[in-house]
Amino acid sequence: MVISFDLDDLLIPGTKKFDTESQNLFQKITGVEKIRKGTIALFRELRERGHSIYIYTSSYRKQSSINFIFKSHGIPVDFAINRQIHNKELKERKNISSKLPSAFGIDLHIDDSDGVAIEGERFNFRIIIIKEDDCNWIKSILNKI
Ligand SMILES: [Mg+2]
């Protein structure tokens, strides 16, 4: 399966706060963004199970910056969709939803936003919503896959 992950407030703390993976000196020096505690174990487990991992963010972060975050932790992602790529694809489809995983061949999307869950019902794509206080978020995902 192709599984995509949102960034802000799901894997990267912003308005929502959660524990993060520890950073090595290289990551501290380069100022790479911190990622949610458990991400490394989860991505490794998904790889082991043969899944592809995408990032799907509404932010304007460069693809190279997104790739770098995960590569620096030893868990490279297969593809990163940012706002520019999303806008271009949906413009061609004349669709105005904030996310449309099915347009990128994604089978399952993980996000923190209830709004995206509503779009999932409307546009018929599979989604799992993870709350900021879900300490067992890894299990929540693995159990539903
Ligand atoms: Mg989010």
Strand content: 5-15%
Low-confidence stretches: none
**CATH-wise, what's the superfamily?**
HAD superfamily/HAD-like
Bound molecules: magnesium ion
| Count of beta strands | 5
CATH class: Alpha Beta
Radius of gyration over alpha carbons?
Answer: 15 Å
- Give the overall average pLDDT: 97
N-end to C-end Cα span: 9 Å
Helix content: 25-40%
> Which sheet architecture does the biggest sheet show?
5 strands, parallel
CATH architecture title: 3-Layer(aba) Sandwich
Count of the domains: 1
Report the CATH topology name.
Answer: Rossmann fold
Quickly describe the structure.
This protein is of the alpha/beta class. Helices cover 37% and strands 13% of the residues.
Structure report:
This protein is of the alpha/beta class and 145 residues long. The protein has one domain: Rossmann fold. It is built from six helices and five strands. It has helices at residues 25-30, 39-48, 63-71, 83-93, 114-123, 137-144, and strands at 2-5, 52-56, 79-81, 108-111, 127-129. The chain has a five-stranded parallel beta sheet, with helices on both faces. α5 links the parallel β4 (108-111) and β5 (127-129). The termini are close together. The structure holds magnesium ion (MG). Magnesium ion binds at residues 6, 8-10, 111-113.
